Amino acid sequence: MNRIVVLPGDGIGPEVTTQARRVLEAVDQRHGLELGFEEELIGGVSIDAHGTPLRDEVVALCRESKAVMLGAVGGPKWDDMSVDLRPEKGLLGIRKALGLFANLRPAQVFPALIGASALRPEVVEGTDMLVVRELTGGIYFGEPKHISREEGKRRAVNSMVYDEEEIARISRVAFESARIRRKHVTHVHKANVLEVSQLWMEVVDEVAKDYADVELAHQLVDSCAMLLVKEPRRFDVIVTGNLFGDILSDEAAMITGSLGMLPSASLAEGGMGLYEPVHGSAPDIAGQDLANPLAAILSVAMLLEHSLDAAEAAGEIRDAAAAVLADGHRTGDLVLEGEARETIGCRAMGDLVLEKLGTR
Ligand code: NAD
Q1: Are the C-beta atoms of 330 and 336 separated by less than 8 Å?
Q2: Which end of the chain, C or N, has fewer beta carbons within 10 A?
Q3: Catalytic (active site) residue 96
C-alpha cells in the first residue's frame, strides 16, 4: 500500500484538498496505484484541537508515507499567537522534519487563461517551465550570520555556503525532471562574482555527464530575470540555489497571472515529497465553496510524477484541467476584470475535472 497523508489545514485548505483527493482517488482506481489515505491536522486547526500546530505523531506518520498532500495554513484567528504557536510554525516544522531539499514550482500558461498574464499573449503563449530551487542551504542558512557593532558602526553578515553534495543532489532532481519534460536544463548562477556559483557550474557540469539526453545551458541570474519576461517560452527546467530560486520562482509564477492555478512540490531524498498549492488559506473566501481547487489538483499531478512514478496519470490530470478551462468554466478568481462570465464553485470545478477524466 502506498500511504498518502492528507493535511488539509486551515481556511480553503480543506475545500481544495477534498477535490484534489477525489481526483487522486479516481486515477488510483484507473491506474491501480494502491493508495491508502490518512488525514491529519496541521496549522490553526491543530492548535485548536491539540494546542500545537504540528504534533510529533503527524510528523512520524508523514515520514512513513509516500507523499503528503497539504492544503494551506493560517488565518486571522491565530494571528495574535506567539511565534512558536502560530500555524506557519507547523508548515516550517513539517518541511524541516521531512528533509525537503528541493522545491519544484511549475509555471504553465493554459491557453484558455492567456489573458490573465500581465504580459502580451504572443509573449506568454506556450510558456511551460519548472523552477527547481535548492531549499535547505545557501545564504538563508549559511554561517556565520549576525548583526554586530564594530568600530561604532552596525554591520551585518550572511554567508552563502554550498558543498558539492548539496549541489549534485538538486542538479539530479533538475535533470530527472527534464527527462519527463522537454529535456532542457538552464542552470542559473552569478559565477562572474560568486565563488559559490563557480562551484555550482563545475558540479552541474559533472552531473550533466550522467544525462547525455538532456541539454544544459548556464545563464547569469540577472539576464535570466530579463529573459523570463521577454522570452519565457525558451525555458524548460531552471535549476538554481535558494536565494535566486526564491525570487525567480515568484517571477515565473506571475507570468501565468493566476494564484489559484499554481502547484508546488517539495522533495526529500528517495522520492518522498510534500505537495501543496502555492496560495495561502484565503480566509476571505473560506467555507463558501468559492475557492479554485486547480492548484491543489495540479499538485496531485506532481505527486503522481515525482513520488509514484506515474507520469501518464499526471498528464491525464493536466489535460483534464486544461479541457475544463477550454470549455469556458471558471472559478471567481479566474474571471478577468470587465469580463461577463458565470462562475462555478470549488466542488463543481472538481466534478468537471473528474468528468473530463472520464471517472465520474
Ligand atoms: P492567500 O494566498 O491566502 O490569498 C490571497 C488572495 O488570493 C485572496 O484574495 C484569496 O481569496 C485569493 N486566493 C488564494 N487562493 C485562492 C484560490 N485557490 N481560489 C480563489 N482565490 C484564491 O494569501 P494571504 O491572503 O496573504 O494569506 C492568507 C493566510 O494564508 C495568512 O494567514 C497567511 O499566513 C497564509 N498563507 C499560507 C500559505 C501556506 O499555507 N503555504 C501561503 C501563503 C499564505
Answers
A1: no
A2: N
A3: no
| Closest listed residue to residue 69, CA positions, set 235, 295, 251, 253 | 295
205 is catalytic: no
Fold classification of 128-255 is: Isopropylmalate Dehydrogenase (3.40.718)
Decide if 56 is catalytic. Answer: no
Q: Is 281 in the pocket of ligand 1 (CB under 6 A)?
A: yes
Shortest-distance atom of ligand 1 to CA 279? 2
Classify 1-104+260-360 by CATH class.
Answer: alpha beta
Q: Is 222 a catalytic residue?
A: yes
Going by C-beta distance under 8 Å and a sequence separation of 6 or more, which residues neighbour residue 279? 72, 259, 260, 262, 295
Parse the chain into domains and list their residue ranges. 1-104+260-360, 128-255
Give the pLDDT band of residue 360 (cuts 50, 70, 90). low
Ligand 1 centre distance from Cα of residue 23 (Å): 22
Q: What pTM did the predictor assign?
A: 0.95
Distance 309 CA to ligand 1 centre (A): 30
Q: Whose CA is nearest to atom 44 of ligand 1?
A: 280
What does the pLDDT average to over 230-242? 97
Asked whether 284 lines ligand 1 (CB < 6 A), one says yes
CB of 188 closer than 8 Å to CB of 271:
no
Q: How much is the pLDDT for 34?
A: 97
- pLDDT for 131 beyond 70: yes
Per CATH, 1-104+260-360 and 128-255 having the same topology is answered yes
* Chain position carrying cell 529573459: 227
Query: CA-CA distances (angstroms) from residue 130 to 61, 249, 264?
Result: 29, 8, 10
The Å distance, Cα 349 to ligand 1 centre, comes to: 19
Q: In this model, does residue 276 exceed pLDDT 70? A: yes
